[in-house]
Specification:
Elements: H1 3-21, H2 37-56, H3 68-89, H4 91-105, H5 110-131
Helix pairs in contact: 1-2, 3-4, 4-5
Length: 145
Amino acid sequence: MTDRYLGVAAIVFAALMVWFGWGIEAPFSYEPVGPRAFPLLLALCIGLCGLWLVIKGKFQAPANPPGTNARIALMVVYCLGYALLFGPLGFIVATTVVTILIGRLFGGAWGKVILGGVVMSVFFFVLFDRVLDVVLPLGILEFVL
């Protein structure tokens, strides 16, 4: 695999960001540039970096060790599952579960990944939902919290 493959992937990703980000509009104008500017600017940066890799890329990457590709695929499945279950389960439960699964994927001990997942989920929920006032879904914990 060369840098050029990564560059092409980055350009495709940037194009998808532009396609999905173009339709973002706020129901009212609260900033001069609006919410569309951030994903489009980020897509521009990613696209330019991808173009640079396509033009100047020449480095050959070594092949992945055995089993690595399966772990990468499993990580993608975990991220998709997290995105799908984020609303129904809520931030705390979904983040705890995905943190535990990813921690185990990287060889973490059960006790450590469970403790880390719970502490991280609760900490970030309090930080974003309560302190920064970013509304996060409660999911199945809605009647408890």
